[in-house]
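Hi there,

I know you've been waiting on this one. I reran it after we fixed the sequence typo, so this is the corrected version. Both the input and the resulting structure follow.
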Amino acid sequence: MDQFLDTFLNWDYIWQVFPDLLKTGLVNTLILAGVSAIIGTVLGMVVAVMGLSKKVWLRWPARVYTDIFRGLPAILTILVIGQGLGTLARPIVGHNPYPLGITALSLIAAAYIGEIFRAGIQSVEKGQLEASRALGMTYTKAMLLVVIPQGVRRVLPALVNQFIALVKDSTLVYFLGFLTSQRELFRIGQDLAANTGNLSPLVAAGAVYLVITVPLTHLVNYIDKRLQTGRKVRTDPGDGDGGSGLTLVNTGGGAAL
């Protein structure tokens, strides 16, 4: 038992690694995941709209892109982009692999987020689009103002889950060989674990990951519950129907026309 505790919970090594985990690892992990999530969300929406287009020259490239980046292992994509395209991007990024790591994570995320958006948009009843067109909206305006907002609202739990996966996938960029100041949580824990032969630094890194992902997991559950059960709002008690003055509004489908 003492050997187990010393291997996984050696507090000397844990306190030794914690400053670097918080000052360097946490910051870089949040930058990698946050920037990749923003870029991936924008690209994912573009891919989703292209995939739903009636034009074959838009729809097929989106499907091919999605199949490739969802079908390849994330580590392979990161290595191909980070190392294979490193020479081509050298005039722009120099020898710094950090932007290439973000690019790889963004492209991977866009493929998954695009599918999430596509499923959400397709789940909106066709009558919403038809009613919007009947009111004089163009197809593009109806999609942007009516259909897409409802579709996005329905897939919020899946989006947050994808952001959680992106935080964990950020551990894979260490294969690109970041500088000491660019290391994320896993690399910092792994470096000290390799130097000491003790796994406690990795346990400390895992604890920081849990601090990030567990609240997001509970946020997913909260959003999902709100979307499924709806919320109660108070109506005008003087409407003369003799009711309780409460009506149930389903928040999952957005505002119907």
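Quick highlight: The longest strand covers residues 231-234.

Best,
R. S.
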